[in-house]
Structure formats: structure tokens, C-alpha cells
Amino acid sequence: MEGLEKVCSFLEKTQTYYLATVDGDQPRVRPFGTVLIFDGKLYIQTGKVKPVSKQLAANPKAEICAFDGETGTWLRVSGELVNDDNKDVKVAMLDKHPGLKLMYSADDDNTQVLYFKNATAVFSSFTAAPETITL
Ligand SMILES: Cc1cc2nc3c(=O)[nH]c(=O)nc-3n(C[C@H](O)[C@H](O)[C@H](O)COP(=O)(O)O)c2cc1C
Fold it and tell me: Quick check: CB of 94 below 6 Å from ligand 1?
């Protein structure tokens, strides 16, 4: 499996990951679940009204972490999260996560998709050497 797909599949399997952002000198972290590969990039989704969106606008550096208890493997992806106002990727994101359509549409002023840029993914466990993938 190609590296990007391996990262996305892991996040789909664990369902929940934790997204850390920077708020001044204060780290902020919260659960997220949206993930999509589009045009060879890894996307997540949020709402522009949320503090997380405002933090990323001020400082795009972010890290996500997810843990697969079945294999004892965790994944960290660190890099920058870049806003993308392309409607096609918003439509694809909402189609992949249809529950979002209760709150979001591709045409509203709130729906935001962001992709990882200059990102590194590291798979770790207590039993194997770390595996690093450049996204
Ligand atoms: C399992 C789970 C998955 C979530 N996935 C997302 C998501 O993909 N995008 C999102 O914007 N919020 C998601 N949320 C809600 C955010 O965690 C919540 O809105 C949080 O307060 C956002 O962070 P902020 O308050 O710092 O902006 C999810 C919540 C849970 C419990």
C-alpha cells in the first residue's frame, strides 16, 4: 500500500484521532474523525467558526495522533494544515462523511477542508522500529 493510503486507512480504522494546534503558547487538542485523500493529499474537515480553525489560520502547524489498540500501533502526522476552498473537495468530503451534511454543505460559509503540507507521518509501536512516511 502506498504511504498516503496507509496513513488514511489507519485513520479510517481508528475512526478517532486527536488534532493538536497552537494557540499562542498554549497547545490545544481535540478529537476529530474526518479524513479524505483528494488530489494526492490528506484532507481533514472542520468549521470556520470553530476555535481550531482560527488557531490554524494564525499558525498552520498541527499534529494529529491516533492509536490502534488491536495492533498496538500509533500514528502521528505533523506538518502544516492548509485551507482549500475548492468546492469539489468539500463535496467529496461531505459525500465520504454523510453525517456532516446535517450541519454542513459545500456552499455554506462555514465548511472548511484543509490538507497536510510539508508533513511527516510516523507509525510507532513498542515492538517495532518506527516507520516514517513523507506526505
Ligand atoms: C469522535 C469525534 C470526532 C470529531 N470529528 C470532528 C471533525 O472531524 N471535525 C470537526 O470540526 N470537529 C469534530 N469533532 C468535534 C470537535 O472535537 C469539537 O467541535 C471541538 O470542540 C473542536 O475544537 P475547538 O473547540 O478547539 O475548535 C469531533 C468530535 C468527536 C467526539
Answer: no
Could you tell me if the CB of 4 is within 6 A of ligand 1? no
pLDDT tens, 16-70?
Answer: 999 999 999 999 999 999 999 999 999 999 999 999 999 999 999 999 999 999 9
Ligand 1 atom closest to residue 51's alpha carbon, by position in its atom list: 27
Residue 80: what residue type? E
Please tell me whether residue 89 adopts helix, strand or coil conformation.
helix
Instruction: Give percent of the chain with pLDDT exceeding 70.
Output: 99
Its pTM surpasses 0.85: yes
Around Cβ 53, how many Cβ atoms within 10 Å?
18
Distance (Å, rounded) from C-alpha 113 to C-alpha 107?
Answer: 12
- Of the residues 29, 35, 46, which should be mutated to test ligand 1's pocket, given the most ligand atoms within 8 Å of the CB? 46
From the CA of 54, give the closest atom in ligand 1: 27
C-alpha of residue 102 to centroid of ligand 1, in Å:
15
Q: Are 45 and 33 in contact (CB under 8 A)?
A: no
Compute and round to an integer the Cα radius of gyration of the chain.
15
